[in-house]
Design goal:
With about 110 residues, the chain is an alpha+beta fold. The chain is built from three helices and six strands. Helix content is about 40%, strand content about 25%.
């Protein structure tokens, strides 16, 4: 990616199974929260006219390309939770946003960061 956007990542089945083993029954509570907050975040970002891109369970990596030609690689099978949101603008590094406070995260990253 080389454009201002938000990327909503979805864990692949091996990462989900690993998280299930680590969390036991608590996995489903966390997964439900992830689904809820990713939906709230998606709706908020669309309202702010931020381009929202999605990975699916088959995607393994996301590459963020900055204006200066440098890039950051995100390996999806190492991320916490079922869903994650990364905010990105080519002038700065991608940012792993807290979905539970997306309005504050949006302001901090897109407005306060130059």
């Amino acid at each position: 990616m080389d454009t201002t956007c938000a990327v909503i990542t979805q864990a692949d089945i091996s990462a989900i199974n690993r998280q299930k083993k680590q969390s036991g029954d608590d996995f489903y509570v966390g997964a439900d929260d992830d689904v809820y907050y990713s939906g709230v975040s998606e709706e908020f970002l669309h309202g702010k006219h931020v381009k929202v891109l999605y990975t699916d369970h088959k995607t393994r990596y996301v590459k963020f390309i900055k204006n200066n030609g440098t890039s950051s690689m995100l390996k999806l099978d190492t991320l916490p939770g079922v869903f994650n949101i990364y905010l990105f603008k080519p002038s700065t590094a991608p940012y792993h946003a807290d979905m539970t406070t997306i309005e504050d995260e949006y302001k901090r990253y897109f407005i306060e960061t130059k």
